[in-house]
Model the fold of this input.
Amino acid sequence: MSGLQIAQLVVEALNGASTIVRGILARTGHLHQAEPYLSLGFVGLSYCERVLASGGDPTQIKNILTQPPSALWADSGDVETEVALIKSSQLDHT
Amino acid sequence: MKRTLVLLLSLFGLTACPQGEPWEPQDVAMSFGSIPAQICIKVNEARPDMLKNAGDAILERSKAESWPDERRRDAILELHAFDNQLREIVSPGWVDEEGNRQVGHCRVATEAVEVLARNVGDWSNLDEEGWQTAVSGLLRLVNTLVDLLEHFDVVDVYGWLDRQGEIGGSGAGQQLRTFIMLAERFLAGGSSGIRER
Done:
């Protein structure tokens, strides 16, 4: 069984019967550690799927997916605000 | 059993992924704000074209169906009202009619998640209430976004989002689907979904 097939099985287990995964983790005493990932760890999962499937650059993918929102918004450019401010300023002068 | 567990934990990012660096809890938490932020930014970039295309579609239909002027005007005004609602969600910022500077809801919500994410050292001392509030707010926001996009001559919203570009190697629509699914799962688990039952 390939790594990708294993990954797909885990995804199916998470989507359809996550109690099975929880059961395995509970029996081995790792449920406490793994529970947040079962709830929040979608990126980790898709990231690993992608690594297994395509052999892409995992570091780059991780960096893209975990960029701080404040930096993203700042980079997006507050153009609309600035344009409106300029228009507003021009109106004040007329 | 141990081998299976290691595989599972690898896939969850609890240990190093094959060929990659491990995902720390803070990375996973940050992605919860980063992905919706990237989606909102893409939608905001597409807004001018969306508005034009939807407006053109209304004009074409009004000609083909010989709408009265009033009906055509109402349809255009309604479209602009939807665009205003969309702007309130996805724009980084704008100045309202009273000249007050406003910040987009998506920016506020995702930066709030960022603050929470920066405080995630490990999963054992998570701000559960803060996360519940932030994730439920963000989920409402993206669901509203999807509803709004349907008013812009967009037949398949997720397919359209996929065509706006990739986020981390997957289409924006696919990433949004995944985000919604996991946010719902997270919220359905309640606080006990974060800590050991």
In short: Residues 1-20, 190-197 of chain B have pLDDT under 50 and may be disordered. Helices of chain B lie at 2-12, 25-64, 69-90, 105-118, 128-149, 157-163, 172-188.
